[in-house]
TrEMBL record:
Protein family according to the UniProt entry: Belongs to the carbohydrate kinase PfkB family.
Catalytic residues identified in the record: D309 (proton acceptor)
Protein name: Adenosine kinase
EC numbers, comma separated: 2.7.1.20
Species this chain originates from: Astyanax mexicanus
Molecular function GO terms recorded: adenosine kinase activity; ATP binding
Catalytic activity: adenosine + ATP = AMP + ADP + H(+)
First-listed, main subcellular location of the protein, grouped into a coarse class: nucleus
Pathway where it operates: Purine metabolism; AMP biosynthesis via salvage pathway; AMP from adenosine: step 1/1
Pfam families in alphabetical order: PfkB
Cofactor-binding details, from the entry: Binds 3 Mg(2+) ions per subunit.
Requisite cofactors: Mg(2+)
InterPro entries, per database record: Adenokinase, Carboh/pur_kinase_PfkB_CS, PfkB_dom, Ribokinase-like
Amino acid sequence: STMATGEPKAKKIKLEEKTDLISENALFGMGNPLLDICAVVDKDFLDKYGLKPNDQILAEDKHKEMFDEIVKKFKVEYHAGGATQNSVKVAQWMIQKPHKVATFFGCIGKDKFGEILKEKAEESHVDAHYYEQSEEPTGTCAACITGDNRSLVANLAAANCYKKEKHLDLEENWKLVEKAKVYYIAGFFLTVSTESILKVAKHASENNKIFTLNLSAPFICQFFKESLMKVMPYVDVLFGNETSAVFRNIEEISKKAQSLPKVNKKRQRIVVFTQGKEGTVMTKGDKVETFPVIEIDQKEIVDTNGAGDAFVGGFLSELVQEKSLEQCIRAGHYAANVIIRHAGCTFPEKPDFH
């Protein structure tokens, strides 16, 4: 029957129309590529290294032995990590096709861990362009799990060696930046290369593209405030979570963020705060809205570690397709809901988001 042979054709055309909307390299992320070393540890281990059960910190000298000890003492799992890299991976997973909608820049070492990160990026169809150097080994992040809590200790190592003039400024790399419509950088990268962030942020602003930033962790707002304030005038969408807002209430922080100067007047700044299971607060101008998250049974939660990164990834996947903010938040909630059912920032083969 002609009907049957005609059907697949019609379907195929539909798909092609969809992919026309999103071009390769439309979403650009830059950050710290880290290999996560995850283990369920005990309270003694946390106490020994002075760790809070729920926190995100940078490794100091006193934590150096910890990375060997966690591998020797506990059953560890390795996952490709780094906040920004997680988010762009999730965005790519949500979009599915075409591949390489998401671009990622960061610095790794020439070693086994670096090879793993390259492999994982390729598997997830992210267009990763790493600056590779041999001074420092690939960065790691120890995720010390006790019950529902996660204490994250990042040893940036190579990630901290990202250099604007050695990588971002190179013509073939900058071309990829220019191809993008939406930019995302986690606040963690402020400790590495503010000048790289500013170059990207200014490009976005001058071309009326969307620049987004995440406050990431309390220590960024506390100790890297000066760098943060240099970048803020270019931020169109600011993400945060309840731990980055630990000192003040979310509405107050959102209002403060709204009142900070903004270079591109064509876009009003949007502030999006996730609060775990409490729902997500979005402010735009004077308007404050709360969106409930998808209900989930406590028993189904395996690992909340990647939830924040996944939310941002889901949000960006719709933002890059020029969908409404409500739709972006729905996609963020969907992605987070999927990720927390899996260990590490990992996910099933295909999304089921409508």
